[in-house]
Design brief:
Blueprint: E1 7-13, H1 21-32, E2 37-42, H2 62-73, E3 76-81, H3 90-97, E4 109-115, H4 123-135, E5 139-148, H5 164-187
Parallel strand pairs: 1-2, 1-3, 3-4, 4-5
Length: about 190
């Protein structure tokens, strides 16, 4: 009998585009997750107000409060981002700015993916995301990140992931995330 509680991961796509390749990759990751992991998509990125320290007080807007509550409730976070002009999209950075002072990602296991039609796979966006996650004191494992190049050729017209090597890469990232969560839980008695 397995009485270990499931690992709850919140998945965030850095793209607001309806046919986003990054959202497709995130959904593929959700379907590839190990049996003890549940990945739930965060859909509120585009509804967040622009970050303003003046309004970053005890009474945040409903959208900001919702983001913070969801992150608090999760055991970890999986972010999949496009690269815009050599960095992560403003919408994603905006969301992360809202949790600098509230600290929901502090010591929280996190994995980061970038996907791009380019040859680089959006590695600069991944680098900027990793830097921001480090500033937020999130716990990103060395094997918890991957840049996916030429992503358009790896997705079907319906957005299904068709590339076996990318499937393997996603499984490795998910395995690293699961390992981090379980390690953290063994350091926090009673959390399993
Ligand atoms: C304004 C803009 C800037 C972009 N800059 C980059 C870039 O710096 N590097 C890159 O690899 N792709 C860049 N792209 C291409 C995106 O990687 C591509 O549109 C990708 O499909 C976006 O991700 P999504 O499919 O998840 O929405 C850019 C696209 C746009 C619209």
């Amino acid at each position: 009998m397995n009485d270990v509680s499931p690992i709850r991961i919140i998945g965030i796509s850095g793209s607001l585009r309806s046919r986003s390749s990054n959202t497709h990759i995130l959904r593929a990751a959700a379907s590839l997750a190990p049996g003890d992991m549940i990945i739930t998509m965060y859909e509120g990125l585009g509804d967040l107000p622009l970050f303003n320290p003046d309004t970053d007080g005890d009474k945040p807007t409903a959208q900001v409060a919702d983001l913070r509550t969801r992150l608090n409730a999760a055991d970890g976070v999986l972010i999949c981002t496009p690269e815009y002009a050599g960095g992560m999209p403003g919408a994603l950075k905006n969301a992360l700015d809202w949790i600098v002072s509230s600290g929901e990602l502090m010591n929280k296991p996190a994995a980061a993916i970038s996907a791009s039609p380019s040859l680089t796979g959006g590695e600069k966006a991944l680098e900027s995301l990793r830097l921001t996650l480090r500033m937020l004191s999130a716990d990103v494992a060395d094997d918890g990140t991957v840049a996916i190049p030429l992503v358009s050729a790896k997705l079907s017209a319906e957005g299904e992931l068709t590339d076996a090597a990318t499937v393997l890469q996603l499984q490795l990232v998910l395995g690293a995330l699961a390992r981090q969560v379980r390690e953290l839980q063994t350091r926090e008695p009673g959390s399993l």
